[in-house]
Design brief:
Chain lengths: 327, 327, 327
């Protein structure tokens, strides 16, 4: 267990050591139990977290709000358009000024090739922790909630077949950050993962290299397939989720044409039958019902999507309490 | 006095027993006194209430925010358009996910034939209390504040002439929920009420049936008139308020034509002179000044509109504290 | 030191005595120290401050939010357009109703010839303190932060050359409230100030008369020049900031033509060289970089703009705690 977290940014899981992430998961479980007991956890009493949204959100926003409430602090939702962020304030000014007022700055900025850069610029200029609530590259809080859910449901990650798969959805803009952060985190933990996608939906090469590097060091393995049936076969965990062919093309029209070639990549009952009987279905929500996944699967007994959503709350409380909580 | 409230939804007053509503009114008075004394009432310390607005509001929003503050908790204003509620999240997901994060969900959704249905769907899927901040059918918190104000001003409801009347206003969209919830609540308390409206402005038949059923059981009486002067004669309480001819027509153009036939249904000094000298004037605000009511009346000594507005705060604190406060 | 502040509005510094403002500055320093020590200051525990924005803001909003958090209370950001403020609720109703729910009302309303009038109307109708977060005439919290920063950097105001100067910026709408409140406050403290502007940018005559009256009573002096170089010569503090030629013309097109005559009124390194070596550069932000000021100056060692921004937080906490904190 690590104990020195105060002032640490949480921009992606890769910047944190495995032991640090394990401390987070352990604390998250503890906070979840206290929540069930209605026990107070005011680790951030009267402290301030700013939530900067360049892209709106239901789960992300409401889970961060509840997290700060339960830690005894306050959060403030700053929609970029309602501030003067567009005319005048640079990331430097946002970082310098907000960190002189509050105790943490959480940012969601998903614009391709822009979001991550922006968050990093704020972080460099901030004297308090900066949190990545999702960017064009990473979604580290989601990955932590995903891992926590798998651990709760499966107890061990050893000898489990864990599948991250692309799924069909008609919208082009679905972000690539979810699979990327999932793969990175699991490779940090030395877990074997199967990644399935039609060829045009490859992930960013620098992420794949980092996953390979992690696997080399910690001992995990990544299997890649372009056949969703092969991926689902005997799986313990499936996480079928749409993302855009961003690495292949930046032309939305061309992107749409590519996507529409793969309408059969829906997660339905026949595909779930290929997996183990106790295989769980994951999705970060919102899902395109009837397109990405059938109601039967997402509302069925194998679905763990609401556990996943709830765990967002607890991993976030753990990370906020550890990094914003010191003197 | 009732004591088991934890986890109870408050979707309309009809679902609550008279004794339960009496407990609410008694607690509201107690909380109002403590507020005057600047005494702390942290019954919901560090707890979270989500406020979902499909229709914006001044009184409703600010009174719920202050209510949670004074109870030691937090509220978060979620405007439907700023979330992803339109593309992706169903009422089921809203109920499941928000109730896994927070301790209460309050919703305002006034769309005709849609709002009440939505709120009920969220409630069915929520593990924490759901509150109706106004829908197309009901406005139960307003009715509780109305009743509290009458009780404060008149001490007893016995042998009082209480009048709910339609009033002229040029906008078609004024909701029907206020008179409906008022009539329902007063019939639960066995109070005699006079209802006045031009024929095209009848209330929903299912509401009128419930009022009749309540009156049969508890002993109150409902008198209906289409003559506003007759209604105001010797009244102790008048509540003249515009609503749309929604039950008669769903065509806005036709609705407007109907409304414009009744410009003389304004609450003015001559009409107030028909009532008792100490008759009080109620309105849930905002009022269309010069159209629904003259400045002379709404700003005059008989007006109790600011008491009514303030009492929103205290009845809401009572209901939130009772339902969200347990373990 | 003064001790009776409860219930006092803070609409401009002129309404407060010098001793009262000194108490604020002294408390602000104390609260800043406690903030550095991470010591709790819950003077407004569970109290409510409403923030009414008719004009959005980054610094103002986030600093008031953090201020209330650190005082143990809550704030609620009410954007005028998201409420029903436009259709129905008068300033009277806003004052009466919000003051029956919460413990303070802060308003930002910068519309020329409208904002100050609106804030005063709310104040007259409010039973709790009303705070001017900037109007068309005044920006009193900014002026207090400006003064606090000068005192921190220069220790004494005696025999210092303090310069408020107009600066070039391409937008017409920059408010005149900042120089006006700065001049007023410094004249209340008997400080000598040099005011520099091109002739068309004179301040409101009633403000200039009040400054002259203050100077007569307390002993300060105001020097006016239309030459920026003359103003900067041997200065200890420079505060070059754009504002519109509002007193000269209300025609935006004509205003723009006037502004564009003075592109050389930029604060750059050569101008800073005219001042004393330890002269500090002030700006209330956001600055038009490359237009109002060069990056070299605003990011350089003489710039105190981030201290100024941070001090907003501490003077606001002081004023809120003093006025909202009693019984």
């Amino acid at each position: 267990m690590k104990t020195k977290f105060y002032g640490k940014h949480f921009l992606n899981t890769q910047d944190w050591k495995k032991e640090e992430l394990e401390t987070v998961l352990s604390l998250a479980l503890d906070l979840k139990e206290k929540f069930a007991l209605n026990e107070q956890t005011p680790y951030l009493l009267h402290k301030t977290l700013y939530l900067l949204f360049f892209f709106s959100s239901m789960r992300t926003r409401t889970s961060f709000e509840a997290a700060m409430d339960q830690l005894g602090g306050n959060s403030h939702d700053l929609a970029a358009e309602s501030l003067q962020l567009s005319h005048g304030d640079t990331p430097k000014e946002v970082g310098r000024i907000l960190s002189s007022y509050g105790h943490g700055i959480a940012i969601r900025h998903c614009d391709w090739r822009v979001g991550n850069k922006y968050i990093n610029e704020v972080a460099v200029n901030s004297s308090v922790p900066v949190f990545n609530m999702q960017c064009d590259v990473y979604h580290p809080f989601q990955a932590m909630a995903d891992l926590m859910t798998i651990l709760e449901k499966k107890e061990t990650l050893k000898d489990k077949k864990i599948v991250m798969s692309w799924a069909y959805a008609s919208s082009y803009t679905k972000p690539i950050s979810v699979p990327q952060s999932f793969l990175l985190l699991l490779s940090q933990f030395g877990v074997d993962v199967t990644l399935a996608y039609p060829e045009e939906f490859k992930l960013m090469p620098e992420i794949m290299e980092q996953v390979a590097e992690n696997n080399k060091q910690v001992g995990g393995k990544l299997a890649i397939t372009h056949n969703i049936g092969e991926a689902f076969a005997d799986a313990d965990v499936v996480y079928p989720k749409s993302w855009g062919p961003l690495v292949t093309t930046s032309d939305p029209e061309k992107g749409k044409q590519i996507i529409n070639k793969y309408k059969n990549w829906i997660c339905d009952a026949p595909k779930m039958k290929l997996a183990k009987k106790d295989c769980i279905y994951l999705h970060c929500l919102p899902a395109d019902r009837g397109v990405e996944v059938t109601d039967e699967v997402i509302d069925g007994p194998q679905s763990a999507v609401f556990d996943q959503a709830e765990n967002r709350l607890h991993v976030q409380k753990a990370i906020l309490a550890l990094t914003m909580g010191g003197k």
